[in-house]
Amino acid sequence: MILKNPAKNSPFANFFVKLTACFGELAEFERKIRQISDIARLPLAQFEIDHLAVRMNNIETAHQWRTLLEEGAALLKESEVNGRPISLFRLYQPLDFLGQRVSVIELPFPKGKVYAEQGWEHIEAVVPLLPAETIEQWITRVCTQFQLAENPALILKISQPYVSGERLANPTIAIRLRDATYSNPTCLKLHPYSIDDVVRSESRD
């Protein structure tokens, strides 16, 4: 699903065909993320979807996908996260995902985990900090507001990845479905800051 359909013979049309061939159908990924948000009773329409992310099982595939993204996107940021490189690309033409314009794709290099499905793997949405709210208070508020810990259908993981050079603490609340019958290995992640917030913080004196 693309926000503005490019002409059939345009470079963008060819790029998005390649994107789907590598990462999988965006509409199916959208369905799986909607399923998680519905079961979590988390209204994604109220929050900015910051970026979409892919996963792969080997370095060769990571390099191939990075080369692909360079055809239709500009490198926004590249960081060491928990000891492995993660690249963020801003698409020249945004995707339409759950009714929002999403321009950023995250491509992390693999670090040994084998995924049953390669391609689209998670999204990250922004639930902003309240004024004077600490990171610990943010985590408690979000989990309490949506009763995430009390929902037996969910698996939660709360973490704060170490990102070399970043000034903003940007913890993650990762939400997956517990029941294997859903056949849904994707993940919905929540953060207090967007990628643009993080990048702007790094440019300050």
Automatic annotation (TrEMBL):
NCBIfam families with a match to the protein in the record: PRK11700.1-3
Gene Ontology CC, one term: cytosol
Source taxon at top rank: Bacteria
Protein name: VOC family protein
